[in-house]
Amino acid sequence: MRFSAFISVLRSVGPVVIGISLGFTLSLLSVNWTEEACYLDGKEGEEVTLGQDGQLKGARKPNSISSINDVESEEDFEPRIVPYKQVQQSAPKKVFRAKYISTELGMRERLFVGVLTSKNTINTLGVAVNRTISHHLDTVIFFTGMRNRKVPHGMFVVSHGDERLIWNMFQNIKYILDHYINEYDWFYFVQDDTYTEADRIKALVDHLSMDRELYMGSPEEFIGGEMEGKYCYGGFGYLLSRTLLLRLQPFLENCRNDILSARPDEWLGRCIIDYTSTNCVSEYEGHQYHHYELGKNSDPSKEQNEQFKKALTVHPVSDPEQMYRLHRYFTEIELQKTYDEIAKLQAEIKNVSVVAFEGNRTAQWPVGINPPFEPKSRFEVLKWEYFTEEEIYSCIDGSPKCELSGIDRMDVADVIDVAMGELNKKYKPVLHLKKQQLINGYRRFDPIRGMEYTLDLQLEVVNQKGHSRSITKRVHLVRPLSRIEIIPMPYVTEATRVHIIIPLTRQDRSYVDHFLEVFASNAFETSENAILTFLFIYDPVEAQQVNQNDIFASVKTQINTYERKYPTVKIPWISVKTETPSQIKFMDIISKKHPVDTLFFLAHANTNINSEFLNRCRMNSINNWQVFFPIHFQDYKPDVAYHNQQRPVTTDLVKDAGHFDRRSFDEACFYNSDYMATRTRMVADVQENEEILETLDIFDMFVKYSGLHVFRAVEPALHQQYSYQACNPRLSEDIYHRCVQSNLEGLGSRSQLAMLLFEQEQGNST
To answer: What's the sign of the alpha-carbon dihedral 750, 754, 756, 757?
Structure first.
């Protein structure tokens, strides 16, 4: 019993005892023991460690007593005050951050293209090269010695000011090293009499290593055969890697001074071989640089050579027409390859769908196109539009039926043609189908997949024996959404000053009071960066009586009142005399009185203008790029919209209060430089027919004569009260018709007008 009790106590206390013992043991072992010196008189100095001050150095045992020297050393110690010195902080170094993250990360574009042209060919072959490759490649620059005063539109031309070929080639390489060497991995040079299949060049460099010193093209022996190595013949173009150009850069001046040659491609080849020991090659890492020499007056459509079909470049090209024929030929080849790849992928999808969970139902028609949109509720069900070849039963204005015209008519005709082509492709040569008529047509826009069509066609079927009969065939078609493309837009700000132009006629005087009141609260009191200008329009009779009876005297008085109320505000006005008011004639006068970088907003006196809209005017009007024609919201006629009702103090943007007047094109935002450039392009037509200035408005002028984007959109911040417009019959038929339709549609909604007619008929019946 005693032994078991002892074991139980030991079992509980033992770990504590062992832990304490182990702790003492480890602490003793960690002490650095040094024996104290026994001989203080220096007889055994070799066993004593002395410091710089002659004192003994070493650690004492923990239980030892400090010696007399230790006590004396502590008593002799005098503290020393170290003066505080403030640390001089240097100015923080400004960290430079690149504008684009690609620059900061050292990311480069893949391919740079330089086209070697001349003064005599830049407007012919140069333009043809630009039209065939520029929309496939990121950067295309044309290098020339001397150039004409007028550079073709849409081309980036670098002129060296000298016609010496070797000098120009040296300047080309130097220009690239100075401006583009850190932005691209590969540099491709080609002459303007060479056709380049741009997509194949891009595909080639995508498979090449960027860190290789590569000189790739069509290898040729040097003239005379005295020099070893081969250079790349310039006629078929050649690729230079960035690594090779960087290695060549220190020796470029030596090449210019030491190497003599009659041909620029041979000079460059000798320079590369002499200083980098890199020869021209036509094959690298299994990738071939295919090229083809075109015979004189040859027709690309009749060439059957396989080397021609695989060519990256074709040389020589004699004229632009031949360049365009080559482009069409190679584009058709690439298009057919794309169709073959699509068919192959569709077949693979069908084969895989057989073993899928739901079988063939997983393969939606058409194969490879997104499945149709599935509505979650009845409110999301997509609406089908019914149409025939002449009419459509879904109209913008809410009418039950309207004529099929414009782009809609072209769309329906194209769909029917495609349907007939696909049917004949499917049943030939057994049957031949001819369209008799379209019985029913349905279409809807699916936001996931595109435009869907269902056609019921009445067809005449003719077999191989010549027998025919009439049948009805239902066809389903889909016009899929293409790849979304982001269009780069120039940079604009909201700091641009807007010059607001308000034309006034005798009929518009009644709107001025309300206009100035609203504009003062929205612009004058908020110091909006805008200048208001009135344009007073007199007819000849009114102009003669201006000294005795000025029809705009009250308006001028109001302007003076607001100028006194707001001392920093000046409201200029311009007076013109004309028999026929014309937007273009007015703007001709105003344009000459303002700088070319002026941003105009042409508006009506019945328009309420605020800062929100002015900012959108600044953002949507882009100099040398885009003009903006907003669609204002106009109130319905109060007697119709609020018949037998109390009129509200403020009008909300609801369908029963008004509508966006799509027939009106009076408001416009544009830059003076764009107006002047467009006006210049119509000079020839004006000389032939001066009445064009009166029959056209500014919207039609920009659409017809400018290459700018005409941006038109509804503008909720631009509001107009109801007003009846006096339509000028001297304007073009289209403009006059738009004006009449605007007046009619501005009366009220269809339901409101129908209710008035219903009440009128009830009143007549009683």
So the answer is: positive
Q: Using the structure block, give the residue that is written with the tokens 């739901």.
A: 358
d(CA 659, CA 716): 10
Handedness of CA 635, 638, 644, 649 (dihedral sign): positive
pLDDT of residue 410: 94
Question: Phi and psi of 667, rounded to 5°?
Answer: -85, 140
Residues near 659 by beta carbon (within 8 Å), at least 6 away in sequence: 633, 634, 636, 745, 746, 749
Provide the CA 751 distance to its chain's centre, in angstroms: 43
d(CA 270, CA 248): 12
Q: Please identify which residue in the block is written with the tokens 């899928």.
A: 356
Task: Tell me how crowded residue 721 is: count the other CB atoms within 10 A of its CB.
Answer: 14
Using one digit for the tens of pLDDT, what is the confidence trace for 394-411? Answer: 887 678 889 998 899 999
pLDDT tens, position by position, 96-151: 555 555 555 556 788 999 999 988 889 899 999 999 998 888 889 999 987 666 77
Distant-in-sequence, close-in-space partners of 494: CB < 8 Å, separation ≥ 6: 615, 618, 619
CB under 8 A, 24+ apart: contacts of 622-626: 622/489, 622/490, 622/492, 622/709, 623/490, 623/597, 623/671, 623/673, 623/674, 624/490, 624/671, 624/673, 624/674, 624/677, 624/708, 625/489, 625/490, 625/708, 625/709, 626/708, 626/709, 626/710, 626/711
CB burial readout 17-34, b (16+ within 10 A) else e = eeeeeeeeeeeeeeeeee
Task: Please say whether the beta carbons of 513 and 526 come within 8 A.
Answer: no
Distance CA 566, CA 94 (A): 45
C-alpha dist (Å) from residue 520 to 2, 543, 563, 566? 110, 29, 10, 9
Amino acid (1-letter code) at residue 309: K
Structure tokens at 610: 């605020």
Instruction: Check: pTM over 0.85? Answer yes or no.
Output: no
Identity of the amino acid at 151: V
Residue-level length of the chain: 766
Nearest of 499, 493, 495, 530 to residue 599 by alpha carbon: 499
Contacts of the segment 301-306: beta carbons below 8 A, 24+ positions apart: 301/325, 301/329, 303/329
d(CA 295, CA 581): 62
Instruction: Give the H/E segment covering residue 613.
Output: helix 611-620
| pLDDT value of position 84 | 64
Helix (H, G, I), strand (E, B) or coil at 50: strand
- Cα gap 590→503, rounded to integer Å: 11
Tokens 């194969």 correspond to what residue? 367
- SS3 (DSSP) at 81: coil
What are the 10-residue block averages of pLDDT along the chain, 766 residues in total?
Answer: 66 75 73 49 41 41 43 59 65 58 64 91 91 89 82 85 88 92 91 93 88 91 78 93 93 87 90 92 91 84 85 91 92 90 85 72 71 89 94 83 91 94 90 93 93 95 90 93 76 88 90 92 92 92 86 92 92 88 89 93 92 93 94 91 83 86 92 94 88 86 92 92 83 83 89 86 74
* Alpha carbons 696 and 700: distance in angstroms, whole number: 6
Task: Specify the pLDDT at position 87.
Answer: 58
DSSP codes, 403-440: E--HHHHHHHHHHHHHHHHHHHHHHTTTEEEEEEEEEE
